[in-house]
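In response to reviewer comment 3 from the previous cycle, which asked for concrete evidence that the modeling workflow produces usable outputs, we include below a single protein chain processed end to end. The sequence was submitted unchanged, and the resulting structure tokens are shown without manual editing.
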Amino acid sequence: MSGVARSMAGAVSALPPRRLDCFDAGAAFVLIAVGVTPKPVRMERRKDELVTKTLERLRKRLGAAAPLQLHPAPAEEATNRHAWPAAASLVLPAERVPVVLDPPRLEQRVAELSTLHPRVGVPIAAECGGVPDGVDVVYEWVADGALVGTSAVFTPDRPTDALECRLTPVHTGRGLKGEALTLAAACGARPLPAALVDKHTEWKKGVRGTGGDGSFRVATYNILADQYVDEASFPYCPGEAREAAYREVAVLADVLAMGSDLLSLQEVGISCYRRLAMVLERRGYTGWHTPKASNSEGCATFYRTDRFEVLEQDAFRVGGDPADMPFPDDIGREVAAHEYTRNAFAVVTSVCQYYHLRDRSSGDDLAFVNTHLYYHPQGNHMRALQLVAVGHYLTRKGVADRVILTGDLNTVRDAWVAPLIESVSQIGVRCRPVADGAPRCLLLFTRLDDGALEVAKHAADGAGPSGSMPSPFRVDPECEALEGLAAVGRTACHALSYDVDGGVLTVNGDGYCVDMGLTSITNRYLTLFRALLLGSSVAYEDGFPSGVSPPMAARLLAGEPVGAVDRDWLHANDPVAGSPPFSMNLAPPLALADPNRDVPFTIHSPGFTHVIDWTLYSPASFALRGVMPQPHLGAVRTALPGLPSEGHPSDHVPLCVDLVHARPLQGS
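The workflow returned the following structure tokens.
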């Protein structure tokens, strides 16, 4: 609440309960009779209309028997334009009610609470947009009928059965209160789950810097976008713990418990960002959200304004058209010239946020980067190229020696990040074809007794169904194309392979990493398999082989499962396998250190528990002062098959470290 509203809170004049509000609406007046009838009566009349005609219409709307008059009485031929601004009251048959010209008011549609499901100990904020100039807002938090707070943010300190916030507009010059707007929580404030409280207690037991030594705290957290959360994807998570309102409050509690000065979040939806920012911006943070190109979720970065000031901020894509990515010119041309790598990047929507900040305490400047790299298991070569693009961008900015790079890099420690941050002189990026033996998942088609197809995703080595699809799905023969497959779920990330030899890091990828999910590749084969099922000889040609190998046709017609990729035939006929390999050697884009070498995991799900989130920093410019402890991996695996859970709102866990400037830097 502003100083004006705070000082006026006990001295403003309130509107009478029975009155006629008159609002200037340009060419008309909006008249609202409040308290005269059981419900307010609203009417809009032109300013050039005779006031006698307006009063007669108002009499009928109010159901009054006698004519209505204004006091003081206007001239006989007066119009609304002059009569209403001069009126002090409206004379009814039994009383006079005051006429209030342009009282302050708030619109319900632009007011909201940061959550409708508050929790004890977690701040809740009220916000109202569209407040007119010259109008302030008084906030009153009421719990179980008692006034408990008078600011825009309130932190419940005990459970309540009912909680609401009353927002009252106040004319700063006239001292006139408008009608209060009430925002009510769906229920009273409930206690936080014990598991969440215990987790925060454990976080604070580690060796942590206090800031007195010049250190500052950096945190990164993939909070799991709500659009990815459902029972099929997370059947082990209790129903309430999957709800967006529950998880958003838990995320906010986690963020506040870490107390970071620099915060990077991934998989943040637009509405989720708005609600988090309502609280964080009133806690001294400034934030910024960048959605992915084709998705409402994206990256969000916050910094404490009392510790840092912005010198520059920017966001850029590390996906889409290679020509639009910040590659060095020669690398950009090579990527664009390789058809399958170019096509793979075309569907990538990764974003990167960049802040160039100055530390108010020391005067040093730094580059704070938040990104979420490509997720596909076979896309290691693309993630390496994405990082090269980020490194080149920072080099062009002149800040490559003082970088803090954070985010979900979607790469496990034993893939390519660890060698990259150690001692390598060169990165070799390879996109090798499937026929070379790179592991990948296949689509298996089975002919059912009723003539339909059953499609399942299986591991290429025959180990069984892939964890990225919980169950097979059915395709009827008359189906022409699939619009989308909600059952696909989220594909786990893993390393294909990497090699370090003579100081050269080689990153291997797969030309099929463009096949995100099942829809695209299934549609390509759908017509072909339908033709076989219906006894037709139609072949399907669209960048895929123009026929079906005899072994595939024989097995399908015999009712046996058939892989969408027949390896023997693929080796000789598949266009990816026969295409020129993508290969280039690059200099490491950044020299970075990893402060979380002892962290056992940052994502935990059935069958996939690894470190794929990172806080990397330039060791020449920063030194480590403390690391937030993480739970013991064995204990987590014993207690929980996967995350999220009641005590943790995401399938990822946050990383939080304390850094200090290692040497004086010249501010840019």
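The chain has a mean pLDDT of 77. We consider this sufficient to address the reviewer's concern, and the full set will be provided in the supplementary archive.
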